[in-house]
Specification:
This protein has a domain of 234 residues: TIM Barrel. It contains 12 helices and 10 strands. Strand 6, helix 4 and strand 7 form a beta-alpha-beta unit. Helix 2 runs parallel beside helix 3 and helix 4 crosses helix 5. The N and C termini lie far apart (52 Å).
């Protein structure tokens, strides 16, 4: 069965493989198939489920809520997020203002059919709202019992420090950050991870298999596989294109002997790799078929020996992205408050 880890400097335990429904539920995967994937996750011991109000413009939360009806709520950890535009796109339908946070948590709880979420996350940093206003709203969400814990996503090292300090002053904890992280995308290692460790925050990482590139199914010089994320014009193709060059793909193919040595699939190796870092509490996996869930869970508890970790670094070499500035690449740079 899957292992659990503490999330940040808190007493909350989460399954180290967390099921996420971005780009699937409510859009790419039919509801009966989504239900089969969630049931497979529950069957293999996954207890943590990550979603967001913006996924499929709130439909992903509704699908997940419908599927989890009847499960023992206390045995689950449900995460959702707030920030990106939802609804018809009105003036206050986005961001981290008090108004949007308070209205969004109520909407998320209704769609998820629960009285509370275990983790409520700021999906990005909001440059247009005073951080004090945002953190006060989160403090009130916690005090009202609508969320047990607060986290963030894709915040920089300085933003995490500032947010954690304000949270402490307001009497609650910031316990998690949700960044992109994989063998190929390591931009959080030099700044975000050390800052997180300082303030008691750990990582719930997304895209641990680099949008599928680290599965090895994309071969250098070969046509893109039909039905793959790289051919999905709804969003997947745009996310994956940075990795689709022959140098990256050729090096990824050279990881297969390492996976074979550990008796792992390429996807399992990628998941085990992100979980080897002490500051990572969980890796988010998505699925369009139940068998993907059952395969991926085999990465839980795998220990990669240090010599093989070094071989992975040698194989990937200079194609690894490490620039800390990339952390803010997906953060909208709106007006800075007061300017």
């Amino acid at each position: 069965m899957i292992k659990h880890r503490y999330l940040g400097n808190s007493g909350l335990k989460v399954s180290e493989l967390t099921y996420g429904n971005w780009l699937t539920h409510g859009s790419q995967v039919e509801n009966d198939q989504a239900a089969a994937c969630v049931k497979a996750a529950l069957d293999v011991g996954i207890t943590s489920f990550d979603t967001a109000d913006v996924y499929a413009n709130t439909a992903a939360e509704t699908v997940l809520g419908d599927i989890l009806v009847g499960e023992r709520r206390e045995s689950l950890e449900i995460f959702t997020k707030v920030y990106w535009p939802t609804g018809p796109g009105g003036a206050n339908d986005e961001g981290l203002s008090r108004k949007h946070i308070m209205e969004s948590i109520n909407g998320s709880l209704k769609r998820l059919q629960t009285d509370y979420v275990d983790l409520y996350q700021a999906h990005r940093f909001d440059y247009e709202t005073p951080l004090e206003e945002t953190m006060q709203a989160f403090a009130d969400v916690v005090r009202q019992g609508k969320a047990h814990y607060i986290g963030v996503s894709e915040w920089s090292a300085d933003q995490i420090r500032q947010g954690a300090a304000l949270a402490k002053d307001l009497g609650f904890q910031l316990i998690s950050n949700q960044p992109q992280y994989s063998m190929l995308w390591r931009v959080i290692e030099d700044e975000v991870m050390p800052a997180s460790e300082e303030v008691g925050v750990s990582q719930i990482v997304w895209s641990p298999v680099a949008q599928g590139v680290l599965t090895g199914k994309y071969a250098p010089g070969a046509p893109l596989p039909e039905g793959s994320r790289a051919t999905d014009e709804k969003g997947g193709a745009n996310m994956i294109k940075r990795f689709l060059n022959d140098d990256v793909l050729e090096r990824v193919q050279r990881l297969k002997p390492i996976a074979d040595e550990l008796d792992l699939s390429m996807a399992q190796l990628a998941l085990a790799w992100v979980l080897h870092h002490d500051n990572v509490s969980a890796a988010i996996i998505g699925a369009s078929r139940p068998e993907q869930v059952r395969e991926n869970v085999q990465a839980s508890g795998v220990v990669i020996p240090q010599p093989l970790l070094e071989r992975i670094d040698e194989v990937l070499g200079g194609v690894v992205e490490r620039d800390p500035a990339k952390t803010l690449e997906t953060n909208p740079q709106g007006r800075i408050y007061g300017s």
